[in-house]
Amino acid sequence: MEGGDEIRQLLREIRDAQREQLAEYRRVTERSLELQQRAVARQEQIGHLYRRLVGVGGVMVVALLVLLVYLLVKWSRYLFG
Q1: For the chain, the helix, strand and coil percentages under 3-state DSSP, each to the nearest 5
Q2: Of the four, 31, 38, 51, 71, which is 20 to 30 A from 23 by CA?
Q3: 80 phi and psi, to 5 degrees?
């Protein structure tokens, strides 16, 4: 019977080790999911900021082009003679 007790003890140890591994796997998986969610949130924030910057830059380019056309029209007789 001693062999049966050893086998039971080994099986318990294997079971306990598997439970520990499963708990660690769950912890790591939850942490990974949390980090991914934070990364997605940051990407969304950066995307909103990028769109704002592109919008402001586009408005500035249009304003500068309008100013350039205005100045060329106003000064065309002096520049082109």
Answers
A1: 95, 0, 5
A2: 38
A3: -110, 5
